[in-house]
Amino acid sequence: MNRPKININHICFRSFGFLLFAIFISNQYCFSQSESKNGLNQSIKGKLQLDSIWKPVVYLSHIPSFTDMYTMSNEIIIADAKVDSSGYFYLSTESLPKQDNLYRLHLSKKASPAASLIIGGKEENHIFLIANKNSSITINNATKDSLFYNYNINGYQPNIDFKTVHDIINNDNISAIKGNLKKEFINKTIYEELRNIADTASHPIVSLYALTNSKFESSYLENQKFYESYLEKWKSENSSYFNELRSKFPKENTNSTFWIVTSAIFFFLLGYVINYIVGSRRKKANKQLKLLSVQERKIYSLLVEGKSNKEISEEFNIGVSTVKSHVSSIYNKLNIKSRKDIVSLNNM
User: What is the pTM of this model?
Assistant: First the structure.
């Protein structure tokens, strides 16, 4: 019985081909996974239902401080992306900084320039978000009748928390309340709630956004310990947002202890020097007074009281000329020139 001949070369060729195919498939899979991991996940993307009035382009602006949230110019727009016919858009975040920053995503009407902002109402054309170069953020709106009046943002938890704070701050129901007293009471409750969020939020921008809108300037003295504790908690934060906040608080004098100690030492030394000088003069004056005779000391005491020569002569029943002679002797021994010097000498 003849056995069939086995073509070794053919088998080796087929095995080699299969190996190359397996390597190719493996590489394609790895590349696809890497692309998905490093590309699509580093993005701000979503699906928007757009009315015909909107230009199908989304713009991303960097917001360096909370005071710039509602400013608009072409200079702060850092990226844009087309919205396709199905409503999808995609913005890569790879060019963003590693640190979280605040950004604004907006669209403009077809008849308006790119740098246009609509604030409030159902035609409000922007939202705010927190992002960094590794962020993966998804945004969807509810209906084309209102662009961002009702929207969802997912993928990065700080944005969900930021939206919660933003919704509290921009609650339309508050502006509709009638009665100043009632509105003031509700606002006070909201400010307290925002301070609580600021105290408990783990993300610095979310926390700071809540605090900034809690009217902290007007309640600083009332809640001074809270604000001092808050600044201490976030003292390592060196972002433009926190530096802006710190500039609004009364500057803490970091050298206050040094100046208190220095001032205390200065005044202690000053008091010591003054006391030494006065004491030295008093000792000198006492030594000089001992040079006076008994009668001259008696006359000296009356001179201190401001008595005239005549009054002194009557007091001691001596002549005026004798008094003048004693006074002259007193002047010489005490090295003074007038009665005024006697008063000064006595006050030492």
Answer: 0.61
